[in-house]
Amino acid sequence: MESYLKTLKFDEIKRYDAPDDAVEYGFRPNIVAIYKGTNPEKTIWFITHMDKVPEGDLSLWDHDLLILL
Asked: Where are the alpha helices (DSSP H) in 1-69?
């Protein structure tokens, strides 16, 4: 993801690694890509999340996608 974001010409890309002994590399990467835009008084956030555990039985889910607005 970080490599792909670098091709999109963001103004700044920051990475924050969260320690986690439960994963192979010992950390979970968190990436923030910043595009300053034309109005510094307005901000839009896109936040995504990837689980490291299986989703389980999908028939028990009410929705397969959660969108928070």
From this structure: 2-6
